[in-house]
Design a protein that fits this description.
single chain, alpha/beta, Threonyl-tRNA Synthetase, Chain A, domain 2, Rossmann fold, 8-stranded mixed β-sheet, 4-stranded antiparallel β-sheet, 9 helices, elongated
């Protein structure tokens, strides 16, 4: 074998062994940060790794905070952990202890959708890295905006929400023929028809007995209509008092595109073109912005990360 091929083979073998060791030994990576404190010319560890649990998503490290070590410092190091482990990491405080959990998420499970028994006000969004279902309660955080570039899962995620609902009514505006097939008889298309429908709803006074969901697809296509934004803004301000809830789907929904964005108390973000678009839509800085297909960031009562269910 030529010498250069032997050299390349050795280089690939060394890299493979290095990757394997670092993948299976998150402790050595954490120690590289050298989180120590100096006092009277002596060094003290601020943190001690209590244990490492191997999980289906990656690793869970339990860190004990020692001298001058604290949760906030580790939480602020989340971007550093992301680079260190080359994946998403989440830092969580463990109540009633001096310990902090660092979740190193190498992959999400790929879970197919199965019906889940929820109230008519609860939307099934997806699941987190522990495979725990993520839901949004429209009574607590009414109206949800869903954004993301094409082919990253936002429409299928909304289909899952609607398929899982019961005990309510649903209307879908401005959708494509091959989307929301289970609700074909509830679709309203055409600019004039949509404006008339929203005007009628916004000028009603009846408090509905069952929750009523209005899904607006491809918002950016309709937003050029001045009357559309005015009517929708008026409806958002009073709809929840009449048991009406809006689900808005768009590719972009920063303030410059949607001045009434803040009327959506829940915001669901799939992959965007850049971090700025995510920060602007969510309304705050977030650490884990490298979203793969069907992965999302959700802001409602709290900030959550997850993945939408697979529709078989």
């Amino acid at each position: 074998m030529p010498p250069f091929l032997i050299y390349l083979s050795c280089a690939f073998a060394i890299k493979f062994l290095y990757d394997m060791v670092t993948d299976e030994n998150p402790i050595s990576e954490f120690k590289k940060l050298n989180l120590k404190d100096r006092e009277h010319e002596k060094e003290y560890d601020r943190y001690r790794i209590d244990k490492v649990n191997y999980t289906n998503y990656g690793f869970e490290m339990i860190i004990e905070c020692l001298r001058k070590g604290h949760f906030e410092e580790l939480e602020n190091l989340t971007p550093v952990f992301n680079k260190l482990y080359k994946c998403k990491t989440f830092v969580r405080n463990i109540e009633n202890s001096h310990n902090v959990a660092i979740y190193i998420v190498r992959k999400y499970s790929d879970i197919p959708y199965k019906p889940s028994k929820l109230t008519p006000y609860e939307l099934l969004i997806g699941y987190d890295y522990k495979d725990t279902a993520i839901t949004v309660n429209m009574k607590i955080t009414p109206h949800i905006a869903v954004v993301g570039i094409s082919n990253n899962g936002k429409t299928k995620c909304v289909e899952t929400m609607l398929n899982n609902l019961s005990g309510c009514t649903i209307d879908i505006l401005n959708s494509m023929d091959n989307d929301f097939m289970n609700f074909a008889d509830r679709k309203i298309n055409g600019e004039d028809n949509i404006i008339d429908y929203l005007y009628h709803i916004s000028h009603g006074e009846e408090i509905l007995e069952k929750p009523h969901y209005i899904v607006i697809d491809e918002y950016n296509v309709l937003s050029h209509l001045k009357s559309f934004d005015d009517i929708l803004c008026d409806l958002l301000r009073q709809a929840r008092h009449r048991n009406i809830f809006i689900i808005l789907i768009a590719q972009q929904l920063q303030l410059e595109y949607c001045p009434f964005r803040d009327l959506f108390n829940a915001r669901l973000c799939f992959r965007q073109l850049n971090k700025h678009a995510i920060f602007s839509f969510i309304g705050q800085s977030v650490d884990n912005t490298d979203l793969k297909q069907r992965e999302f960031i959700l802001l409602h009562q709290k900030l959550e990360y997850g993945k939408s269910y697979k529709i078989m």
